[in-house]
Amino acid sequence: MFLGLWASAVCAQGNPLPDTIAKIKPGIVAVGTYQRTRSPPAVFRGTGFAVADGTYVLTNAHVLPKVLDKAKFETLAVFFKSSGQDKLRGAKVAALDNSHDIALLKIGGSPLTALKLGDSSLVREGQRFAFTGFPIGMILGLYPVTHEGIVSSITPIVIPTPKARNLDPKMLRRLQAPYSVFQLDATAYPGNSGSPLYNPASGKVIGIINKVFIKESKENLLSKPSGISYAIPIQYAKRLLSQKGLNY
What we know:
Blueprint: H1 2-14, H2 17-24, E1 28-34, E2 42-51, E3 56-60, E4 75-82, E5 85-97, E6 102-107, E7 128-133, E8 145-156, H3 169-176, E9 180-184, E10 196-198, E11 205-210, H4 213-218, E12 229-233, H5 235-243
Antiparallel strand pairs: 1-2, 1-4, 2-3, 3-6, 4-5, 5-6, 7-8, 7-10, 8-9, 9-12, 10-11, 11-12
């Protein structure tokens, strides 16, 4: 009996991730739209996470709908589970950084558990991180899923193509202002877009999972997109928060 308890304690000390997941999960939300007369009324588009004072959410800009059907009262919303119940909060776009595919949302209601932001400039290849989100949407309910892996490469968001005809306006814009992103060996899915990439021990976020924006730049010549996953360094989100006068 004693040996069993001792082994469990050693295991817990050696793997801080379970405690970290329990700490950050209340701040993970699904991002989508809500329309009461639609079936289903909630449409999932990606993942987000609470920051600042808990009334703001970070996600990918591409997760947001291009337009809302205001005539049918469609609204931007976040969804999460609290005390075993599915909850919905209305949301509005507070700020956008389209160059880095980041959106900051302002949500109504009481604050959610805000995640702390780390220093993405300190990230090194080979370090282990985790991300939590909704990989296949809300099909299986509002239960966030966690994946873990290493940063396998810190790589430019866009690599010049040898053939000029393969360049499109998006690639040209990104070539003019290149920056590096984190390439991961863990598999993220489309619904993971906007998920926080965080330190398993501290829970501090060092990146935002991105499944669409980066692949458009890096893998545009592949006939079959790869299973490689990427994340945008959190420094760009911190800049957006600072511009709004928000602490992180």
